[in-house]
Amino acid sequence: MLSDYLPIAIMFIAATFIACLVVLISILFGPRKRANNTAKVVPYESGMRAIGPGQRRLPVRFYLVSVLFILFDIEIVFFYPWAVAFRDLGWNGFFAMLSFIGILLVGYVWVWKKGALEWETSDK
Fold first, then answer.
1. Do 93 and 82 form a contact (C-beta atoms < 8 A)?
2. Nearest-CA neighbor of 104 among 82, 65, 80, 73?
3. Which range, 35-39, 41-45, 117-121, has the best average confidence (pLDDT)?
4. Is this prediction's pTM over 0.85?
5. 118 and 66 in contact (C-beta within 8 Å)?
6. 86-114 helix and 60-77 helix, angle to the nearest 10 degrees
7. Cβ–Cβ contacts within 10 Å for residue 1, how many?
8. Distance in angstroms (rounded) separating the CA atoms of residues 40 and 58
9. What are the residues whose beta carbons fall under 8 Å from the beta carbon of 101, sequence distance 6 or more?
10. Domains in the chain and their CATH numbers?
11. Which sign, positive or negative, has the C-alpha torsion 24, 8, 70, 81?
């Protein structure tokens, strides 16, 4: 019975070994000190001189929209196996997916009414 888990244990050990090896190689062969020239450490973007900090704070709305996109995108993935097995599922599968679409629609309308999909830019 434990022999069934042997391939998983070997894969886990191999993945851990490779991760440790990559970290060790980066420590051994990576740069040890920062460059003295400030032009070398400035991020390059379109040949323009950087204005302001390299990392700016993004509004929470950006994260909210991205999380909602990922959420609805993952839920839409459930349509593909349903579409493949549509004929085999019959009416029970049809009504199950209809209720799933209804729940998605209720969630989408709720998010829309809350104003979470509004994208307001502030040029201050």
1. yes
2. 73
3. 117-121
4. no
5. no
6. 170
7. 4
8. 26
9. none
10. 2-114 (1.20.58)
11. positive
